[in-house]
Design a protein that fits this description.
The protein is an alpha+beta fold. It is built from 3 helices and 4 strands, in the order ααββββα. Strands 3-2-1-4 form a 4-stranded antiparallel beta sheet. The protein starts with a helix and ends in an 11-residue tail after the last helix.
């Protein structure tokens, strides 16, 4: 609002300089961009990112199958980060175990996988994701997680766009101020030697 008022004030001000009017229009343009273009850029970025991530999520669910695995025993090699087997408080949240599960084609499989510490005792069962060949893989991304990532990307895009607009405005204003000082220096260099002298017109 102040930018629009500034444009209107400088339009009819006899003391207006060209740089004053340019600065007012630059400020008004920046306000419009911050109010309209920046949120639009963030929204478009978020929507496109969400669509891309949701397609990736759907592809992961098509290529990965859930199954139930049963713990046979703890793996011979402790999980990374296990430094004190005697202290339960220092054990990691996940443990490496030898487990059995059924592949998508119905064949039984046995291998070393990682599960939560509370499900690492022999006989415990847990959910395991496998590929079409029955090999363990990470769980697919949740649609809600993909949506949260898209929102974060949209907000980040809007923030970066806002920073760019403000940086551009400041750069233009800085150059305008520099131009004013240059003109003032030239005017002073021309009038300065005669300043205060009789008949010098000052």
């Amino acid at each position: 609002m102040r930018a629009a008022t500034g444009v209107w004030r400088w339009r009819h001000n006899p003391l207006r300089r060209t740089t004053d009017l340019i600065e007012a229009w630059v400020a008004l343009t920046a306000v419009v961009l911050l109010a309209l273009a920046v949120p639009t850029a963030g929204w478009i970025s978020g929507v496109r990112t969400d669509a891309s991530l949701q397609r990736a999520v759907q592809a992961q669910y098509r290529l990965r199958q859930p199954t139930t695995a049963r713990v046979v025993r703890l793996a011979d090699t402790p999980a990374p980060g296990l430094t004190s087997p005697e202290s339960a408080d220092e054990q990691p949240l996940r443990r490496s175990v030898v487990a059995r599960w059924t592949a998508p084609d119905g064949t039984p499989r046995t291998g070393t996988v990682t599960t939560r510490r509370e499900l690492a005792d022999p006989g415990d069962t847990f959910r395991l994701w496998t590929d079409r060949g029955g090999r363990p893989v990470t769980a697919p991304m949740l649609p809600e997680t993909a949506h949260a990532h898209a929102i974060a990307i949209g907000l980040l895009t809007a923030a970066l766009a806002g920073v760019f607009v403000e940086a551009a405005r400041r750069l233009v204003v800085r150059r305008l101020v520099h131009r004013r000082y240059q003109r003032l220096d030239r005017a002073w260099a021309k009038a300065g030697p005669d300043w205060g002298r009789t008949g010098a017109g000052s």
